[in-house]
Amino acid sequence: MDPYCLKKLNQERRARRAALLLTDLGDGRDRVIKEGDPVAGPLGIAINQAFLSGGSTVAEIDGRSFFLNVHLPPPRLVVIGAVHISQALASMAKIAGYDMEIIDPRTAFATPERFPDVSLFAEWPQDILQTRPLDPYTAVAAVTHDPKIDDLPLERAVNAGCFYVGALGSRKTHAKRVDRLKSLGLSDEQIGSIHSPIGLDIGAASPAEIAVAIMGEVIKAFRARGLRTALQLEKTA
Q1: Beta-carbon neighbour count of residue 212 at 10 Å?
Q2: Torsion of CA 116, 122, 125, 126, to 10 degrees
Q3: What confidence score (pLDDT) does residue 3 get?
Q4: DSSP assignment, residue 195?
Q5: What are the helix (H) ranges across 97-146?
Q6: Taking a C-beta distance cutoff of 8 angstroms, is the pair 161, 183 a contact?
Q7: What CATH class has 76-224?
Q8: pLDDT digits over 23-80, tens only?
Q9: Where in the chain is the domain with CATH 3.40.50.720?
Q10: Distance between CA 129 and CA 152 in Å, rounded?
């Protein structure tokens, strides 16, 4: 690999941005393509599909062979609230291959005894998110039911383009949340991207079942991210 390409790949990895090393198998030349970089035609469609799947592949384009080596940031799940649902989510996220973090300033809930082997921050979300910013490869689930804790990270998550943003609460609770988020400057479209009630509609009742519903919706959102863009590229190719 060209040392310059390696340097660029490492820069993207450190910044938690997706990148792809495109190698022309005919002449061996390669280049780094960042997710979102414009690439026209069938090659652009193949690149976008590779980013969506996360799997490296060989593409045959106009009689030429290209190796698409994809490097995606590990998906991250940030849970706002050290509650019973979060305890169940911790083991599910680990099985699904997600790095999970829990943020809750309530020290009576955010304890290592309740959350062993989990990145736990017993601080206010606005303080933690200054040093651990959200990004498009992060999912955020707000489950405290406390506006003082939940609202700001929801606003940050939407503005950061997180692939999933969900909030616990009934439709009545969410209606009040909508008014608060509007006061923080979010548009109707942005607020509409928040999943509430949170989780897939499977009739979940217990904390463990709600955790299953949340994890399922997170995985669904991750696998569908950017799909609309890919379809648009296919139509215009």
Answers
A1: 18
A2: -140
A3: 85
A4: B
A5: 125-131
A6: no
A7: alpha beta
A8: 999 999 999 999 889 998 999 999 988 988 888 999 999 899 999 999 999 999 999 9
A9: 76-224
A10: 10
